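Trying the structure run again after the queue cleared.
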Amino acid sequence: MARDLKRAFGQRVRELREGRGWSQERAEQHIGLHWTYIGQVERGERNLTLLSMQKFAKGFKIDLAELFKGLG
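Done. Tokens:
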């Protein structure tokens, strides 16, 4: 179950990133996390902290809750 949530969250991050036309390297500039870390998140390989999630939200300029939209 936790693995499914990590994959779903990662897919959400990928959708937000690609929706902005950003590469992972470009996303690094906006989010403040290394592009390899972003890739690991997108593949569901990372167990994120709240601080990391907040960085994603700030980088995408959305509310933290918006990151979880549609994840069930």
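The chain has one domain: 2-67. Worth checking whether this holds up in the mutant runs.
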